[in-house]
Amino acid sequence: VRLQVAVTEGIACIKVTGPANFAAGVDFKTVVNRSCEEGGRVLLLDLTECVNMDSTFLGILMSMTNRLDRIELLNPSDRITVLLDSLGVMELLTFGTGENPFDAKLQET
């Protein structure tokens, strides 16, 4: 699992490559917490290269909804969308498609 991060003007962008699972969960939570401390109010989670999300990662993501103004998932797979819909959490998130506007600024965690 690979996490890349860019924080700009109150927006934290995290790109997940590989499965969003428990192995990435601790690093993901640390990165989001750090960006919140730096004034980040919006999370853009780029899932273009992420095929699946497990319950641990999803739980961490959902725990962030009360700390952030908005969480947007960029290009989630059908599998992830079905999972979120089946758990009834779609209304807590926004969804986008297309290119990541922060791609050039992403750095390894």
Automatic annotation (TrEMBL):
What positions does the domain STAS occupy?
A: 1-109
Q: Which InterPro entries match?
A: STAS_dom, STAS_dom_sf
Protein's recorded name: STAS domain-containing protein
Q: Which organism is it from?
A: marine metagenome
Lineage, top ranks: unclassified sequences, metagenomes, ecological metagenomes
